[in-house]
Amino acid sequence: MPTIPVTPDLTIDENEIDLSFIRSSGPGGQNVNKVSSAVQLRFDARRSPSLPNMVAIRLLKIAGSKATSEGVIVITANRHRTQEMNRKDAIDRLVEMTRQATIAPKRRVKTKVTKASKAERLDSKKKRSGTKQGRRVRSSDWD
User: Fold this and answer.
1) Where does 3-102 sit in CATH, by number?
2) pTM confidence score
């Protein structure tokens, strides 16, 4: 059973990917209405045994509008004129999205605001306030 390498320790089984060929809207000349050169790739990320659960969750988040509510990722490739090039393009795009999903986001470490930065902020506010007060027109000036 052939596999597609994503990372050194993660591969996707080719049997999990469903490829269908559709008519492309792009360039093609006289062949444009006869040849189905665009590729529609479907990959069920939610039920894939190849992907760990957290990778599948991140992959669906990265896929965004390309993912259906059932957890199937749909990629349409029609950049090239040939089926083979579009097939390779669709698989490469799936592999790149999966590779991004394997990288776990770093947890944010909460930090406390320092006393010096608080004091600096308050000093700048006082200075700005003084500048604006100096611009005010006092009612005694009008008399």
Assistant:
1) 3.30.160.20
2) 0.70
